Fold:
Amino acid sequence: MRNKLNLKKDIYLKISNLSERPNVIIDDDHSLIGSDSTLDSMKLVELCIYLEDMASEIGFDFDWTSESAMSRSRSIFKTAGSLTIEFFEQMESK
Amino acid sequence: MIIVTGASKGIGKTICERLLSNNQAVIGLARDTSKLDFESYDCDVSSFKDIENTVRKIKKNSKSIQGLINAAGTASMNLALLTPSDISKKIIETNLLGTIYCCQLISPLMIREKNGVIINFSTIAVNLALKGESIYAASKAGVETFSKVLARELSSFNINVNCIAPGPIDTSLIKGVSKTEINNLISRQVIQKQFTKFDIADIVELLLNKKFKSISGEVLHIGGS
Structure:
C-alpha cells in the first residue's frame, strides 16, 4: 500500500492539475471552496471522483455523497489539507 | 445501463418495457420490485438512505450507468386549503426530494463516464396552474427548476438533463379525475388529443438518443402547452 505521504502528494498534484491557475503550488491551507479557491464546483466534483477511484484502488469507499458527508462538506472541502485528513480518516476507519 | 425509478407501474413500467424491448439494459427501482423480471432494487426514492444503499449495490456490480429516468411520482387532487399536511409532505418528498436525491446520488456514476442523460418528470399542471393540484404542481415546478439548474451544472460532464411534462395520461395518478376534467385539460393542449404512456416512451427514446445531445435544460410538453 502506498504511504500517506505519497497519497497526499498525488491528491495535491490532482488539485494542481484541476486548478484554473497555472503552476499553482498546493499546500495544506490551499482553499477548495470560497472566493480564494482555484477550483470551480465542477472541478471539485472531478476531484471527488478521483478520490473515489484512489480509495477503490486502496480498498475502501471514499464517501462524499452520504448525508453525513454532505452535512460536513463545508469543513471537509475547506482546504486541501482538510480534504486529505478526511480521506485518511475514512481510509483508516474502513 | 439505464436506471428507471417508479419501475413497477405506470409510466416508469412502460419506459422499462420499451427500453428492454430495444435490448437496452435497465435497472428498475421501486418500493416493491417483486413482480419485475429484470434487474431491480426495492427503493423508496423519498428516502435518501434507501437510495444511498441502492447506489452502493449498483456500484458494487461495477455497472456503467448512462441514464437516469426519474419516473417515480405521486399525486393527490385536493384544494390547497383542504390538503392534509401528511399528503403535502408525501407529495413533496416523493416528487421533488425523490428526484433531487436520485440526481444527487446517481449522477456521480455518470460523471465518471463523462456521459449521461437524466430525464425528470413534470406535468402540464405547472403551466396551466390547475385548480386542485396546487401541491402536486408546486412539487413539479420545483422539479422543472431543479432540472434546469442541474442541466447547467452537469453540462461540462456531457450529461443532459431534461423534463418531460405529460398531460392527462391514463395511469393510476389520474384515477380520481373525471372524464369532463380530462377533456377540459386536453382542450388546452396544442394538440388536442389524449396521449399515452407509449408516447412518453417515444420521447424518452428520443432524449436517450445520442443524436439529440443538443437538448438540455428543456421541458418537453406532451401534446404542447
Chain B has one domain: 2-221.
